[in-house]
Design brief:
About 65% of the residues lie in helices and about 0% in strands. It has one domain. It starts with a helix and ends in a 15-residue tail after the last helix. With about 70 residues, it is mainly alpha-helical. The chain is globular and about 35 Å long.
Length: about 70
């Protein structure tokens, strides 16, 4: 699994969890989905992705990520 795939899985999971919690607990959980979206947008412009940094430290994924300027393969 590449870092790019891991980031997409993490982002999708966080959005789905946010929607479920907003439905069953409190609508304020939608702020989590908004945060994920804003983070994805800023990483596209700046190249800085906190999730990529964490995944690299954990040893998850091989090659470049969606947030880095290096090629994926």
């Amino acid at each position: 699994m590449t870092i790019e795939n891991a980031i997409r899985i993490l982002a999708g999971t966080m959005v789905l969890i946010s929607i479920a919690l907003a439905h069953w607990v409190s609508h304020y959980w939608l702020l989590l989905a908004a945060f994920v979206g804003v983070n994805l947008i800023q990483s596209a412009f700046t190249g800085f992705c906190p999730a990529e940094t964490i995944f690299k430290k954990l040893g998850i994924g091989k090659g470049g990520g969606c947030c880095s300027s290096s090629p994926a393969r």
